[in-house]
From TrEMBL:
Record-listed ATP binding positions: K42
Designated name of the protein: non-specific serine/threonine protein kinase
Region (Disordered): 282-304, 331-364
GO molecular function, one term: protein serine/threonine kinase activity
Length: 458
């Protein structure tokens, strides 16, 4: 167990203080005693360190990320394994995360929001050129320091050409910013990062991400199926050209998004002139003064305790279920960011309003199918955690549910019914084998029936 001021990793990195903790790792402030400088050290949590495949991916990607150097990316210095626990050593970045800025300011001036997004594109362009896909572009993974913008945490990145690690069906990333292909269990590519950036830009402009829901499974469903609408519906006065750029970033089909981060950056810079806050070749990122942006009701906003607790916000989600399956029923939590802080709450958040009369608010109510699926996943996770559902049975049902919920648009009713029948068949077989028992068998049977009834409304 790491102890501040005592534990030394790799014979040179003395751990000083915890910067943050998440579901995947703990991030420490540390002293590199060889080079006499402070660094950030990300130490993988024990349950993940025990997974040989995960361990190989962690080390391989750390070395791959260390080969990429760019002013917009946090530098990876070193990695290693100490007493069976892997760690990665990174640049210690000063400043505040975009998550912290948005929690205080609510939304940003359009020029500043575009400037930040354009800067992120610079970093992504360098990473993508090196074969890295970030897979978790969120406000918590973007740090602002004066006029500087840096992208944090390639901790769940994957080098192109390598197969996705961990069990089939695992979803990596933060659901409110997750691309449809990632939510569907398909491979991520550079255009997936652009979708996530589109979600971040939408939130910077409106004070809310494109989609909200009461559970992560509901959010994933909406990422795949729903139209987010235009930012100007939430914040009147935004230029139509900016609406168009964001709509392209948020296209469901990756081929309809900008082909590269450089193309996305060019589109952003075409919206605003340098005088509006964007300078060619760089960014003019001005400090936010809380309360100066019209209609920002979230000054001093903090997540409710139930939202902030790690794992609780994902209690009825596909991601939490997969964490339980992969860790043998030991629970789970959010992916960790390089700063160590958990991502933003996945529950619905207050919508920002503009000055003057309020526009009609876009619909955020979950469909009956998504609501029923969220209940089913919650019951399934509880059953696995309580030992009434065998991990393999949970995996089987998870896979069937994912196929049912996240297929490509345009399925006919017969295809939907066939996939639902397969879900029922898998549940019945596992129950007859004694892999689903007790109260879980009753609650899951009821939840599957409710899902079937909801599917009949399609």
């Amino acid at each position: 167990m790491a102890v501040a001021g005592t534990t030394v990793l790799g014979g040179r990195y003395k751990l000083l203080a915890v910067l943050g903790t998440g579901g995947m790792a703990t991030v420490w402030r540390a002293r590199d005693e060889m080079l006499s400088r402070d660094v950030a050290v990300k130490v993988l949590n024990p349950q993940h360190a025990a997974d040989a495949e995960f361990l190989d991916r962690f080390e391989g990607e750390a070395r791959h990320a260390a080969a990429v150097s760019h002013p917009r990316l946090v530098t990876v210095f070193d990695c290693g394994v100490e007493s069976g626990t892997p760690f990665i050593v990174m640049e210690l970045v000063a400043g505040r995360t975009l998550r912290q800025v948005l929690d205080e300011a609510g939304m940003l001036p359009p020029g500043r929001a575009v400037a930040i997004a354009a800067a992120v594109c610079e970093g992504l362009e360098a990473a993508h050129a090196a074969g890295l896909v970030h897979r978790d572009i969120t406000p918590a993974n973007i740090v602002l320091n004066g006029g500087e913008v840096k992208v944090l945490d390639f901790g769940i990145a994957r080098a192109d050409g390598t197969r996705a690690a961990t069990a089939a069906g695992t979803v990596l990333g933060t659901v409110a910013y997750l691309s449809p292909e990632q939510a569907s269990g398909r491979p991520a590519d550079p255009r997936s990062d652009l979708y996530s950036l589109g979600c971040v830009l939408f939130e910077m402009l409106t004070g809310r991400p494109p989609f909200t829901a009461d559970s992560a499974v509901g959010l994933a469903y909406r990422q795949v199926h729903d139209d987010p609408g235009l930012p100007s519906a939430w914040r009147p006065g935004l230029p139509a050209s900016l609406d168009q750029v964001i709509a392209r970033l948020l296209a469901k089909d990756p081929s309809s998004r900008p082909p590269t981060a450089a193309a996305a950056r060019a589109g952003l810079l075409s919206v605003f002139s340098p005088a509006d806050g964007v300078q060619n070749g760089g960014t003019a990122v001005l400090p936010v003064t809380p309360g100066t942006v019209p209609g920002t009701p979230r000054r001093g906003w903090r997540p409710r305790p139930s939202e902030a607790a790690l794992g609780a916000a994902l209690a009825a989600s596909l991601i939490a279920l997969m964490v339980v399956l992969l860790t043998g029923g030991q629970g789970g939590g959010h992916p960790v960011t390089a700063s160590g802080s958990p991502p933003a709450s996945l529950a619905a958040r207050p919508a920002a309003t503009g000055t003057g009369s309020s526009p009609a608010q876009p619909e955020t109510t979950l469909s009956p199918v998504a609501a029923a699926a969220a209940t089913l996943v919650g019951d399934l996770k509880e059953g696995v955690t309580d030992g009434q559902v065998a991990p393999q049975a949970g995996q089987n049902l998870f896979n069937q549910l994912q196929q049912l919920l996240f297929q490509s648009p345009g399925q006919n009713p017969q295809q939907v019914q066939q996939q639902y029948s397969q879900l029922v068949q898998v549940f019945t077989q596992d129950k007859s084998k004694g892999q689903v028992t007790g109260q879980a068998a009753t609650s899951l049977s009821s939840a599957i029936s409710a899902l079937g009834a909801a599917l009949g409304t399609l």
